[in-house]
Specification:
The protein is built from ten helices and nine strands. It is an alpha/beta fold. Strand 7, helix 4 and strand 8 form a beta-alpha-beta unit. The longest helix is centred in the N-terminal third of the chain and has 25 residues. InterPro entries: Epimerase_deHydtase, Lipid_A_modif_metabolic_enz, NAD(P)-bd_dom_sf. Keywords: Isomerase.
């Protein structure tokens, strides 16, 4: 049965693909974004600087999806200001939107969270899954965890609330560290990853959109890590990206201390975000809703590189 879906954060990296996927599945989509819609948009758009401005219109919709989020910021910020900004967007706004969806008696609300709500890194040789004790080590993850917990407490008989926790996302016009890797690969830069044998989880953003649809259709409730493939090393990812860009793979093997020193210069305090382990297991979600990822990670990388 086709649904009317309102998607907050429709202009962002995740929200844009989320809207496109739902519309292509035949659902009526209203994308809420801060700026004017791009030309050729496949879904209806409303521009609202404050997402709360359209809360009164939710009564005519079936589902709501929140893709708004403040992700990792590389520039330095005073700790108190950074915490306030993360919690205002990732926690307080998410709760406001979910409460509005419940008040309007929508049948489903999906929150796009993050694996960082559990932890940003994994121990060597282990996988973080839904049974792992949440221990976020950064403000970003803490804000996501606080939101998830409060959102799930709002779950009602009429409105199913689900929080999906994806790892690093691969898709068109990528952002963050994945975007930096993709653009370096596009230029054929010889990054020194040859000695790095880490294990990191990545996911196609299109698969996240499909998983969100599956969760809403199943009226799933709870917080779930969502993955679509086995963990790989950053060297493997970069090798694949450079090949997609038409370059010969060049990843010299430098001693790990030197690689970490170079990464620290570029990434400041976030070297583990690239060089450390961050391996996750989303099998519980797949079994719970009977979901199978429709797109391979290889195809997602092809699309990503073609978009640059």
């Amino acid at each position: 049965m086709l649904k009317k879906i309102v998607i907050f954060g429709a202009g962002g990296f995740v929200g844009r693909i989320m809207c496109q996927h739902m519309a292509r599945e035949g659902h009526h989509v209203l994308g809420v974004m801060r700026n004017a819609a791009p030309t050729g948009c496949e879904f209806d758009v409303i521009v609202a600087r404050d997402p709360g401005d359209i809360i009164s219109q939710l009564q005519s919709y079936d589902w709501a999806i929140n893709c708004i989020g403040r992700a990792h910021v590389l520039k330095s910020e005073p700790p108190e200001l950074a915490r306030k900004r993360y919690f205002d967007v990732n926690h307080h706004l998410a709760v406001q939107l979910a409460q509005a969806a419940i008040d309007a008696e929508l049948t489903g609300f999906a929150q796009i969270s993050s694996v960082a709500a559990v932890r940003s890194y994994s121990d060597k040789g282990t996988l973080v899954d839904d049974s792992s004790l949440p221990a976020p080590d950064r403000i970003y993850g803490a804000s996501k965890l606080h939101a998830d917990r409060e959102l799930l407490a709002l779950n009602s008989r009429k409105t199913s609330v689900v929080c999906l926790r994806p790892p690093a996302l691969i898709g068109e016009q990528p952002a963050g560290l994945v975007g930096k890797l993709a653009r370096a690969a596009k230029l054929g830069l010889p990054l020194p990853f040859g000695s790095i044998k880490n294990r990191r989880s990545f996911m196609a953003v299109e698969n996240l959109a499909d998983a969100t649809l599956a969760a809403l259709e199943a009226q799933a409730t709870g917080a779930f890590i969502v993955t679509d493939s086995d963990p790989v090393s950053v060297a493997e990812i970069y090798r694949n990206l450079t090949r997609q860009a038409g370059h010969k793979y060049r990843c010299p093997s430098l001693p790990k201390p030197i690689v970490k020193m170079l990464a620290k210069i570029v990434l400041r305090g976030r070297t583990d975000s690239l060089l450390g382990d961050a391996a996750y297991d989303g099998s519980a979600f797949r079994e719970h809703v009977g979901w199978k990822p429709p797109m391979s990670l290889e195809k997602a990388m092809v699309r990503m590189m073609a978009s640059l």
